[in-house]
């Protein structure tokens, strides 16, 4: 005998129920995303580190049979000590030093006045320089991990990232199975997206960090040899500038050479230019050629446009996520083109086959 609840007729058709279900899922996902908006970089960072460390995890756990939890904890400690702490220290050093220059513009104004005397043009004043530096400090504080954003907030992000990464490794099979089950793509498309993710992470994390580190060290040594003050600080700046395609480290050693030339230190200025043009820029091209096949070959235009897009959306993680978004967009366009072509051929085949069939009697 039906219960009273079963006698009640639902006012929605099955199609309306389906549409409302999707609407509810999208709405709840949007609320969750808004609630976790301040910590979304933790989950994105965990995904990037998962791609970076997974070959090590597979080699130690699946091939050599090591304990899964021990390997995972070892990878987390390695990530914290070797990647997170140094990168955070560099970011803090950069933001704090720019804040000092923003508060005291005496040194910068002295350099600019010397350039004005050499060129005969007056192109700046102290107030505009102070305003520009304050804007740069504010921009960097929003995009680099800094104590200006709150020590507790930063600690929560790092802890959440490592906590997420721990479960991604310890429950690797279930995590990957869930991706394959719930992502709305065919297996071939998932394979293409996975290859794109791997290539982007390798090219823009492993490869670019290595290239940036080498260029930063060479820039710092060059500036120290030719007597530029604060060469260590400018080497740190060169590390971050090296992530910007085309421009890169010339934004650091170029002004340093101009400064030396403006101070009548012609030999030092020319020396910086020669080392920058011959060694520092060419080491970038050489390393990219050597690493392209092993770490993923990403077109420079995708990297440049992706960096501009990603940094504004995701902060410092946008250096990786921006090019990844553009790469995924291109992959999905190719998938759509292929699927559309297959459907057109299928319709044409059915139409041709229908035309050859004898009429019904």
From TrEMBL:
Coiled-coil portions = none
Note the topology in the membrane: Multi-pass membrane protein
Q: Which residues cross the membrane?
A: 20-53, 73-95, 151-169, 205-226, 233-253, 265-283
Q: Which UniProt keywords apply?
A: Membrane, Transmembrane, Transmembrane helix
Q: Which InterPro entries match?
A: AI-2E-like
User: What are the record's GO terms for cellular component?
Assistant: membrane
**What domain of life is recorded for the organism?**
Bacteria
**Cell location:** Membrane
- Annotated family: Belongs to the autoinducer-2 exporter (AI-2E) (TC 2.A.86) family.
Q: What is this protein called?
A: Predicted PurR-regulated permease PerM
What organism is this sequence from?
Answer: Hymenobacter mucosus
């Amino acid at each position: 005998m039906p219960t009273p609840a079963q006698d009640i007729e639902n006012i929605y058709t099955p199609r309306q129920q389906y549409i409302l279900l999707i609407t509810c899922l999208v709405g709840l996902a949007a609320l969750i995303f808004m609630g976790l908006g301040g910590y979304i970089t933790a989950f994105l960072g965990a995904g990037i580190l998962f791609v970076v460390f997974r070959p090590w995890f597979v080699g130690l756990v699946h091939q050599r049979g090591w304990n899964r939890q021990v390997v995972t904890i070892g990878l987390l400690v390695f990530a914290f000590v070797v990647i997170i702490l140094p990168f955070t220290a560099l970011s803090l050093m950069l933001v704090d030093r720019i804040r000092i220059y923003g508060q005291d513009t005496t040194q910068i104004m002295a350099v600019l006045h010397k350039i004005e005397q050499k060129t005969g043009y007056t192109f700046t004043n102290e107030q505009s320089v102070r305003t520009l530096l304050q804007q740069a400090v504010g921009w960097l504080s929003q995009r680099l991990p800094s104590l200006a954003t709150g020590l507790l907030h930063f600690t929560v992000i790092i802890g959440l990232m490592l906590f997420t990464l721990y479960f991604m490794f310890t429950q690797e099979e279930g995590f990957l199975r869930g991706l394959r089950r719930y992502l709305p793509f065919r297996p071939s498309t998932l394979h293409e997206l996975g290859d794109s993710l791997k290539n982007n992470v390798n090219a823009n994390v492993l490869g670019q960090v290595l290239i940036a580190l080498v260029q930063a060290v060479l820039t710092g040594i060059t500036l120290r040899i030719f007597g530029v003050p604060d060469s260590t600080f400018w080497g740190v700046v060169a590390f971050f500038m090296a992530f910007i395609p085309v421009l890169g480290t010339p934004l650091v050693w170029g002004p340093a050479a101009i400064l030396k030339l403006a101070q009548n230190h012609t030999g030092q200025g020319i020396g910086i230019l020669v080392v920058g043009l011959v060694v520092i820029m060419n080491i970038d091209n050489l390393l990219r050629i050597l690493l392209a096949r092993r770490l993923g070959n990403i077109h420079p235009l995708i990297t440049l446009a992706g960096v501009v897009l990603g940094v504004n959306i995701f902060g410092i993680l946008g250096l990786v996520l921006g090019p990844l978004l553009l790469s995924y967009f291109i992959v999905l366009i190719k998938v759509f083109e292929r699927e559309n072509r297959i459907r057109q051929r299928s319709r044409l085949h059915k139409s041709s086959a229908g035309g050859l069939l004898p009429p019904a009697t």
